[in-house]
Amino acid sequence: MPRVGLTTDRVVAAAADLADETGFEAVTVSALARRFGVRDASLYTHVRNLQDLRVRVALLAGGELIEEIAQAVAGRAGKEALAAFAGAYRAYALRHPGRYAATQIRVDQALVADSPALRRTAEITYGMLRAYGLTEPDLTDAVRLLRSTFHGYCALEASGGFGAPRDVRASWDKAVDALHVALENWPRADRDGECVGAAG
C-alpha cells in the first residue's frame, strides 16, 4: 500500500530539491526515504529504481528549464531571442545546480519522444535558429554549438573555474555576441554535409 501523502510527483519534486541541495549524484532512494522519514520500500511504489527516479528528475528539470526559456524568448527573434534564451539557460543552471545536472544525463529516445517538455525544447531551439535562415544539417550543428558553449560556460562558472579578474557576466555577454555573429555568418552545408562556398 502507498504511504498516505506520498505521490510520484511529490517524490520526484523532493528528489529535485535534494539534487539542488546536495548534488545530483548524491540523490539516492535511501537519501530520499530519509527525507520523508520512511523506509526505502515505501518509495518503490512510486519509482521503479534509482535510474527511474533520476530520469524523472531530468524530465521535471527539463520542463522547468524550457518553460523559463520560452517565457524569455516570447516575441523576440534574432539576437534578442538568442540573448534571452542564453540568459534564461544560465540563470536556471546557476539557480538550480542539481536540477541542471539532471538535464545533462542521457535519456532513452522513446521517453524523449513521449515528453511534451523535451519536444517543446526542440521546437523552441530549432525555431530560434531557423530565424537565422538555417536548415539541416546546419540546424543540428548549430544546436550542438549552442549547447556545448552554454553548458561548458555554466559548468566552469559554477565550479569557480574562471579565475581572471574580468567580470564573468561581461564575458558571457561577449560569448553570446560572438555566437550571434557565427550564426549570421554560418558556413552553409550541402546535403552531404560539405561546406558550400568555402575557399579552395
UniProtKB/TrEMBL annotation:
Pfam families in the cross-refs: TetR_C_33, TetR_N
Domain annotation HTH tetR-type: ranges: 5-65
Protein name, UniProt field: TetR/AcrR family transcriptional regulator
Spans through the membrane: none
Segments of the chain annotated as binding DNA: 28-47
Entry keyword set: DNA-binding, Transcription, Transcription regulation
GO MF, one annotated term: transcription cis-regulatory region binding
